[in-house]
Amino acid sequence: MSEIPTIAEAAKLIAAKKLSPVELTKSRLARVKALDGQLNAFLLVTEERALADARAAEARMLAGTLKGPLDGIPIAHKDIYNTAGIRTTAHSRFLKDNVPAEDAHTVKRWADAGTVLLGKLATHEFAFGGPSFDLPWPPSRNPWNIEHFTAGSSSGTGAAVAAGLILGGTGSDTGGSIRGPAAFCGIAGIKPTYGLSSRAGILPLAFSLDTAGPMAWTAEDCALLLQAMAGHDARDPASARRPIPDFTGDLGKGAKGLRIGVVRHFFEQDHPVSAATLKGIDAALDFFRQEGATVRDIQLSPAADYHACGFLIMIGEAFALHLPWLQERFGDYAEMFRHRVAPAALMSGPDMSQAQRRRRVLAAEMRAAMAGLDIIVSASAPGEAPKIADLPKWTSMEKPSFTMPFNVTGFPAISVCTGFGASGLPVAIQLAALPFQEPTLFRAAHAYERATEWRARRPALAAA
Asked: What does the pLDDT average to over 304-309?
């Protein structure tokens, strides 16, 4: 076993009684103690709970009654996921003493699958305003270079997975908050189809865009985690009532026969990406062609159209949610959050109505463009992670996002690493599919990861 196994590797060893869940958990806790002082990935470490979970998993292993591939796997939750009896803050002073009475639906599902809870992970304030330096806890740092940004808002999950502090974790994605950190931290992260995973018990940002999903080192690990997350929940009014497929069922089938469309104008014209990012995307497309996939360019509305539509909806819904606190305690929010959400006070009812109308048009456009296609390809991020100190306050408004189009449409999308740029930081590709076609995304991403060297390279971190 490598020092940092994948979930799939650890699960096989645990099932064969060759890996102790207790020893695996102790090794992750030791790594947290050695490295997290540099990364700030954790807001709270639940060591006693983790060891109790691990001992229970080990007892099941020895008795031959393991619950499945997640039994005994060390994970942690983004700190907007409610955890019963464990502080859940949304990385905000408003909730610094908040202790929920119940688990979020997905937290319970992972616990029922036997996962080992190591703690709660950094985010941006209420999954939107960040990175902020005027909150009770500092922002998370990128393990590839701690002077650099993780992206957000699932920042702690991205950093913790990349650094091997945990084997997998939860994220949420309203405009790219899973895929952005996955790209900058060089891991895999999937935004599932809107409605596939319950949001019940997850602190909201924008109800019509919020999506819960997993982050891990590989696409295969994300598939294993999503298997335990997905499913109908009556407490979430947007929850889809449909059978859940086997998300690992198509792994190993390769890319032969896949029909891939490339939204090239997104990353070459609308928001030109770095040379390393473009090289990674083109190399991935060459791989798919060589494997027997067909690849062709497709045309959509400019990325700015998708971004403007999604951003207006996001800040409008976030403003409506936070309005009572904004009116009474505006200065208690971090500067980044209040400056990013306050422009929504100038929005009108017709503005929101037009954004929702435009959303329907763009979703229909993307669905039509995917006729005869299995996957569409774009960038996940424009390039390597910038320095955290150099990040503009209005970065989310300066250039169109590559991730927002798939929040606007609700389509599933995954980010996987395609190499490294000139500064040694990761770059990535984004694959998207029609609603509820996650198995196809996992198939393609897994085939690419298995054929390339990027999953063998981890950040070189030394204990402080």
From this structure: 97
